[in-house]
Amino acid sequence: MPGEPRPVFLNLLQIRLPVAGVMSIAHRAAGVLLFLALPFAIALLALALSDQEGFAQVQVLSQQPLMQGGLLLLLWALAHHFLAGIRYLLIDIHLGVQAPWYRQTAWAVLAAAPVLALLLLWGLS
Amino acid sequence: MSRHLSGFRAWMWQRASAVYLAGFFIYVLAYLIAAPPVDHQALKGWVGNPGMWLATALFFLFLLLHAWIGVRDVILDYIKPAGLRLGMLAAVFVFVLICGLWVLSILMGVL
Amino acid sequence: MEFQIYRFNPDVDQEPRMQSFAVEVERGMMLRDVLLEIKSRDESFAFRHSCGEGVCGSDGVNVNGRNQLACITPVSDYENGPVVIRPLPGRPVTRDLVVDMSDFYHQYHAVDPWLKRKDPVPEQENLQTPEQRARLDGLWECILCGCCSTSCPSFWWNPQKFLGPQALLSSWRFLADSRDQAEDERLDALDGPYKVFRCHTIMNCVDACPKHLNPTRAIGHIRNLMLKKSV
After folding, report:
1. Phi and psi (nearest 5°) for A16?
2. Which sign does the torsion angle of CA C185, C191, C195, C198 carry?
3. Please, which residues 9-38 of chain A have a Cβ atom closer than 8 Å to chain C?
4. C230: exposed, middle or buried (C-beta count within 10 Å: 0-12, 13-18, 19+)?
């Protein structure tokens, strides 16, 4: 029967997401990623705390290319989630909630997160 | 209404835990840059120190609380069928609980 | 200039389609003028509009992915085209650019958008200081166009449980009004994980509002008031 059900325009590829929205969905994706990585992170902590052999194993493991890649991804997720989280906490107390600051801080978070991630990787290696 | 999950309390605990997590993260980062533990002895000594042990235990407690509230929000947003929703919330809750008990056993081994 | 317009006739179409129109654009033309020109060529084309000056809130549409009011959006904002005009996102399409706003209006009514008094009405004016009146600025100007709520992902996913930016801004408009005497009642009605707390501070609403209002800030005020009253 024509006309039913009524169509809805909700093609996400055709709807423009402003910069704050991009930062927001990335914050959620980063959170989910970190959540899924939690058991691996805890396992690494357990290994490092077990004995000297375990500690050394973690050191060696973290130098491997695949692990470095995974580590960079998780550090990016952590950096983004952390910086975006700070921005949200500030918005909660009405800092940066108005234009143009909410857009400027969103850009800043998006830009700073990968930089912070690289710094963290370099620092922890 | 009492039949609903909380809204305000979850939001508040997520913010409060975030503040602690951020603070702890910055502290750990600063420490690892200034004086990174070089071997197992150093790491165990650092985490085993009573103040640090307590702070670490609190970190994981707040981390799991923060993660639970966050993932719950994702499920409440996207998952509509009530059965699937309940199932996923329960699964995540159990996952978080297991992680918590695991971390507890690790920390007990350091005391 | 080329304009691609979303078309859907429920009596005839199974699926919506895009229809292209070439319209001669003149200086000072607004998108509503383009839509009216298209209507003069095709009587069956349907879209809502009224005041033509951005105060009635009737002609909210999605243009090149962004929600706008057609009557105050200059065509000159779009240099070459094509300009793609679609209905407000997330709402069932009644016909062409006309959408069903029922959920949106329902949520507005759900916040009891009128002053509630416990004391008897004063004999003369219900006075406010300039400072008290100033608290309503940025709130009373809402024209219920729907650009904000239809740009909000949380409202897309839960339009019947989440109040949405417009209704929440309206709720704060009354919570902030010194003449209103139903603060506890209003806050109790905002209970639960859905009404307020599907807002994740995405802030699409602030970008979308054609009156430059800030629903995120209003929602922040509501949450802070809840915090204040909880301790």
Report:
1. -75, 120
2. positive
3. 9-10, 14-18, 20-21, 24-25, 28
4. exposed
Q: What is the pTM of this model?
A: 0.95
CA dihedral A20, C165, C154, B18 (to 10 degrees): 60
DSSP state of A29: H
Chain C nearest-CA residue for B73:
C198
Widest distance between CA atoms in chain A:
72
- Going by pLDDT thresholds of 50, 70 and 90, the confidence category of residue B35 is confident
Under 8 Å between Cβ of C187 and C223? no
- Interface predicted TM-score (ipTM): 0.93
Asked if C50 and C98 touch (Cβ cutoff 8 Å), the reply is no
Residues of chain A with pLDDT under 50: none
Check pLDDT > 80 for residue C81: no
| A82 closest CB neighbour out of B22, B39, B44 | B22
Which uninterrupted H or E stretch holds C86?
strand C83-86
Q: Report domain extents, chain A.
A: 20-124
Give all domains of chain C, ordered by start, each with its CATH number: 2-99 (3.10.20.30), 102-230 (1.10.1060.10)
Stretch B53-66: mean pLDDT, rounded?
A: 97
In CATH, the number for domain A20-124 is 1.20.1300.10
